[in-house]
Write a structure and sequence with these properties.
Elements lengths: L2 H19 L4 H13 L15 H6 L9 H14 L2 H19 L25 H20 L1
Helix pairs in contact: 1-2, 1-5, 1-6, 2-5, 4-5
The protein binds zinc ion (ZN).
C-alpha cells in the first residue's frame, strides 16, 4: 500500500480510537497514530520514513521483519517505557493499521518473520484502481467521522 493510504487509514482508525480511549491530547494522539501507520515501511528505501534511513531498507527485506508482530513490539515498547501509556496505544494502533492494510494487499505480510515465512495476503495490488478506490472510501469515511466526533 502507498504511504498516503497508510496515513489516511491510520488517521481514520485514530479518530475511532480517540472516541474509545479519550486521550487528553487528541492532536498528539492522532499524530502518533499516523506516525505508527508509517513506521513499518522503514524497510522500504523509497517510503516516507525509509528514505530517511536507507540503511534499514538495505539490510532488511521489505515486508519482512519490520512488518511482523515482533516489530510491533519493537516500535511500541519504547513508547510504553518512556511516555504515557496512551501514546504507546497510539503507536500500537497505527502500526497495526499498517499491517492490516498491507495484509489485504497482493504482496501480503509475514506476521512471524523472520521465524516463519507464513503469509497473510489479499488481492489488492499496490497503487492499483482497487487501492485508489479504498483510498477514496477511507477519505470519505474520515470526513464523515471528523464532522460527527
Ligand atoms: Zn508496508
Amino acid at each position: 500500500m502507498m504511504g498516503r493510504t497508510h496515513m489516511l487509514f491510520g488517521f481514520l482508525v485514530g479518530l475511532f480510537a480517540i472516541q474509545a480511549l479519550h486521550p487528553s491530547n487528541q492532536i498528539l494522539f492522532i499524530f502518533l497514530v499516523v506516525l505508527g501507520a508509517l513506521l513499518p515501511d522503514i524497510d522500504h528505501p523509497d517510503s516516507k520514513i525509509g528514505s530517511k534511513v536507507r540503511i534499514v531498507g538495505a539490510l532488511f527485506e521489505h515486508r519482512g521483519f519490520f512488518h511482523s508482530l515482533f516489530a510491533v513490539a519493537l516500535f511500541v515498547i519504547p513508547f510504553w517505557i518512556f511516555t504515557s501509556r496512551i501514546y504507546a496505544y497510539a503507536i500500537l494502533i497505527g502500526v497495526l493499521s499498517h499491517l492490516l492494510a498491507d495484509m489485504i494487499s497482493h504482496m501480503g505480510i509475514m506476521p512471524f518473520a523472520p521465524i516463519s515465512r507464513f503469509k497473510l495476503r489479499g488481492f489488492i495490488k499496490t497503487n492499483s484502481i482497487g487501492e485508489n478506490i479504498i483510498l477514496v472510501v477511507v477519505f470519505l469515511l474520515s470526513i464523515w467521522k471528523l464532522v460527527s466526533l
